[in-house]
Design goal:
Oligomer: single chain
Number of domains: 2
Radius of gyration: 22 Å
Largest sheet: 4 strands, antiparallel
Structural class: mainly beta
Distance between the termini: 39 Å
Strand order of the largest sheet: 1-2-3-4
Strand content: 25-35%
């Protein structure tokens, strides 16, 4: 049974769902950059039939129709911006998106449907001088693409121990320890996250390949996962040339960069990780692979190795038992 969820004018696009909440970009107000939410559990008349099914399920009452306007649907008005809120994603009660609010760069924002504050508004997560796009969220982790890198933000980090997460502090830390750079290739895009696994598209070898990073890997057994382990970082001053910036597969991250200084400027960090066993190259075919998604141990992606685009998958448990 197919059900039409939205009936507004113009277009509703880019849906995302978690539990009973469906969100999307909505153009009914003259653009495609408002964010609406629909609560599938709302039953306005208490007849046991949720609003969105009132016109679908016959309960014997000919006057029983889906209400218009529908209280189950609402615009999160505080998200509206003249420059738009793009590609919203939801996990639990938290909605994330990226938005060019200042007209200069895209930043990541968050809105919590369960925020108890009566005047609750969206929260800006990133303030850096680069575009942050292609945002995704799982539990307390937000990920995005930034300057060809994949970055992660942990909403649970409380650096000063005051029981207020960094992103909720009145005065934000800069740099913020809650933000971690996951990739260093300079060619990463389209990240997606599920549980402890991040997948993305990477063009470090000239074509699009699929890579994965396992946030649980602790190579040295010190009970600190690799992505947080200070012992796995290296200073740029210890490297005489960019050709020595190698990944676990022996491929230089920036073979044409010319110098470590160029690499440092591209990453905007004074140090970095390389040779990280938590990073795994999933595909190595010369054709392009893109738009990977992960669920449990299954990774799926678009693959052009046969000329057109097909869907491929891999079970990680069969590769790494």
């Amino acid at each position: 049974m197919q059900v039409q969820l939205t009936k507004a004018s113009l277009s509703q696009i880019r849906p995302s769902i978690y539990g009973n909440h469906v969100i999307w970009n909505d153009g009914r107000n003259g653009n495609y950059y408002d964010i609406y939410v629909y609560d599938l559990s709302v039953d306005s008349d208490g007849d046991g039939i949720p609003n969105y099914l009132e016109d679908v399920i016959d309960d014997g009452d000919p006057s029983d129709h889906r209400p218009d306007p529908d209280p189950a649907e609402r615009m999160i008005y505080s998200l509206k911006s003249s420059n738009g809120a793009s590609w919203p994603k939801i996990y639990g009660s938290k909605i994330v998106w990226y938005e060019r609010r200042d007209g200069i760069q895209d930043d990541v924002f968050l809105y919590d449907l369960e925020d108890p504050r009566p005047d609750s508004e969206e929260i800006q997560i990133t303030f850096d001088g680069e575009d942050q796009t292609a945002v995704d969220i799982y539990q307390n982790f937000i990920i995005w693409k930034e300057a060809g890198m994949i970055c992660l933000y942990d909403l649970n980090v409380d650096s000063d121990g005051d029981r207020i997460s960094n992103y909720l502090e009145d005065v934000r830390l800069n740099p913020d320890p809650a933000k971690i750079q996951i990739t260093y290739s300079g060619e990463s895009s389209n990240p997606s996250i599920f549980n402890n696994k991040v997948v993305w598209t990477d063009k470090r070898h000239g074509n699009n390949d699929i890579y994965l990073y396992d946030l649980d890997v602790d190579s040295d057994g010190d009970e600190v996962p690799n992505y947080l382990d200070e012992d796995l970082y290296f200073d740029f001053k210890d490297l005489p040339s960019a050709s020595e910036i190698l990944g676990y597969d022996g491929i230089a991250r920036f073979p044409d960069a010319g110098s470590v200084e160029t690499f440092r400027q591209m990453t905007a960090l004074p140090r970095f990780r390389w040779g990280d066993p938590a990073e795994i190259r999933i595909t190595s075919n010369e054709a392009n692979q893109d738009n990977a998604k992960v669920y449990g141990d299954i990774v799926v992606w678009e693959d052009e190795r046969d000329g057109d685009s097909d869907i491929y998958m891999v079970n990680l448990s069969q590769i790494f038992p």
